[in-house]
Specification:
This protein has six helices and seven strands, in the order ββαααβββαβαβα. By secondary structure, it is an alpha/beta fold.
C-alpha cells in the first residue's frame, strides 16, 4: 500500500477560520483538488454560506471563495496509507504541522473539523490543548459516506459559520 500525501494549506494572513478534513480521498488526490469528489457536499455548502448561487466550476475560483470568506483549508493528516477513500481505512498517519500554521496565522480564531474522524485524528496526534483560546467546532462530515445526514441537514449545521465570515 503506497503512502498518500495531503495538499498544501489554503491560507492567507486574513484567515479567521481553519477548516480541517482528514485526508483527501481518491478522487481528490487524482484531481489534486480539495473535495474533488463530485458527491461531496463541501463546495455546495461553502458556496451557500458565501451567498453564491452556484459552485464555481473552476477550482481556483473555489479556492478564492474560501480565501475571500476568511477561511483556511487543510487536512489533519500529512500522509497515511489507505485503501479507498474511507476515513476508517486510514493507517500509519503522520499529522500536518497545524500548530505551526496556527502560530504563523494568529488571526485564525475558529477551528472547524469536517467530521468526527478529523477531530479524533487531531486529538490523537496533536491534542486539543493546542487549540485553547480558540473556538472549536465539529461539523457533520460533508462526505457522501455520511449518508445519515441529508444535504439540507448538513447545510443547517454548517450555517453557524455564516456569522463568522
Amino acid at each position: 500500500m503506497e503512502i498518500l500525501h495531503s495538499f498544501d494549506p489554503v491560507v492567507t494572513p486574513a484567515s479567521r477560520i481553519l477548516i480541517l478534513g482528514t485526508m483527501p480521498g481518491v478522487a481528490s488526490l487524482r484531481k489534486q483538488e480539495y473535495y474533488g469528489f463530485p458527491h461531496n457536499a463541501f463546495w455546495r455548502i461553502i458556496a451557500a454560506l458565501a451567498d453564491h448561487d452556484t459552485v464555481p466550476d473552476v477550482y481556483e475560483e473555489r479556492l478564492e471563495m474560501i480565501r475571500r470568506g476568511g477561511m483556511a483549508l487543510w487536512d489533519v493528516c500529512h500522509s497515511c496509507r489507505r485503501v479507498g477513500s474511507l476515513d476508517s481505512n486510514i493507517l500509519d498517519e503522520v499529522p500536518n504541522d497545524i500548530v505551526a500554521l496556527l502560530d504563523s496565522h494568529p488571526s485564525i480564531q475558529t477551528v472547524v473539523f469536517n467530521g468526527t474522524p478529523a477531530h479524533k485524528l487531531f486529538k490523537r496526534h496533536i491534542g486539543m490543548k493546542t487549540l485553547e483560546g480558540r473556538e472549536v467546532l465539529v461539523m457533520p462530515s460533508t462526505s457522501p459516506a455520511n449518508a445519515s445526514w441529508s444535504y439540507e441537514r448538513k447545510l443547517a449545521a454548517w450555517s453557524v459559520l455564516k456569522t463568522r465570515f
